[in-house]
Amino acid sequence: MSSGRRSRQASSSSRINDDQITELISKLRQSIPEIRQNRRSNTVSASKVLQETCNYIRNLNKEADDLSDRLSQLLETIDPNSPQAAVIRSLINE
Amino acid sequence: MHMQPTSSMKEEFLQKWQMGLQIYRPLIDNTSVSERRKAIKLSADVAMASLRRGTTCWSRALIQKTATEDNFLVRQMLSGIKAETLINKKLPKVMCHRKIVRRSKKILRRRKSRSAIEEVAAKARKLVKKKTQGLRNVVPGGEFMSNDVLLIQETLDYIVSLQTQVNVMRSIVDAAEAGSERTAYYLGKLKFAIEDG
């Protein structure tokens, strides 16, 4: 493969990628609640969308950790005869 | 029109998570809170990742990562889905091809000086590049996704999966924590949340 051909291929594929990336970033816009709910979501820049995406993912992971925490505490303190225990039993035993 | 967790995803996640918790059942009664918490979180992660049946990079990476923390659990939870291959499969090592990057940088430098507009565009691209790098740090297996298009596709799928996980876990914990008079309310809400899609 000549170097000329390779550089032409690199630039044409990067044009295709730019379009794909623009489209994917607009999908991200719709996935992040903070941005989606903003009336003027289309004016949010690509880099802001990416930044908010990182933050959103971190928050989701943190929430999952927190929920695991709460559930494990519940298992510790729960009164076996309470309705709460029934919920957890059904979760664990079904 | 955005992607969001479907009722079948939530249903499947709950079933798989339940299975994981059942595997831990003997331990749950006899261990510390922190070990319990780890068991709950790991089961939730494997349940979430297994929804994708090995078809996405992030889910394979998450399964491998969880397997290093609890190999037994992962094997048990994935026994129907070729656990061995998922745990041992090498993730694609598609690192940046330095030669191509160096060559295209050389070509760019040879071009005539750019206009102000081109400068702004170049700065914007650089900023986007920096932010996509940030994504690689939060998406499992991100370090193997040198292709930005792949990275963002994986991110979109990962987000929907995380939303499913959090959605279901939140419903369960709310139901379990509610005072007795509200437990029925939350249970109803959980059922509705899963069927509602």
Provide keyphrases for this structure:
heterodimer; A: 94 residues; mainly alpha; elongated; B: 197 residues; 0% strand
Structural overview:
With 94 residues, chain A is mainly alpha-helical. Chain A is 81% helix and 0% strand. Chain A contains four helices and no strands. Chain B has nine helices and no strands. At the A-B interface, helix 1, helix 3 and helix 4 of A face helix 1, helix 2, helix 6, helix 7 and helix 8 of B.
Concise structural overview:
The complex is a heterodimer of chains A (94) and B (197). Chain A is built from four helices and no strands.
Shape of chain A: elongated
The largest inter-chain interface, given as chain pair and residues per side, is: A-B, 51 and 55 residues
Number of domains of chain A: 1
Overall mean pLDDT of chain B stands at: 79
Major pleated sheet of chain B:
none
Q: What is the chains' assembly state?
A: heterodimer
Number of strands of chain A: 0
**In whole angstroms, how far apart are the ends of chain B?**
15 Å
Proportion of β residues of chain A? under 5%
N-to-C series of helices and strands of chain B: HHHHHHHHH
The whole-number mean of residue pLDDT values of chain A reads 77
Poorly predicted sequence stretches spanning 5 or more consecutive residues of chain A: 6-10
Largest sheet of chain A: none
| Radius of gyration based on Cα positions of chain B | 22 Å
Helix content, binned percent of chain A:
over 70%
Structure annotation, total helices of chain B: 9
Which structural class fits the helix and strand makeup of chain A? mainly alpha
Shape of chain B: elongated
Topology, pairings included?
The complex is a heterodimer of chains A (about 90) and B (about 200).
Chain A: H1 3-31, H2 33-36, H3 46-77, H4 83-93
Chain B: H1 7-28, H2 33-50, H3 57-69, H4 71-77, H5 83-88, H6 98-110, H7 116-138, H8 148-177, H9 180-196
Helix pairs in contact in B: 1-2, 1-8, 1-9, 2-3, 2-8, 3-4, 8-9
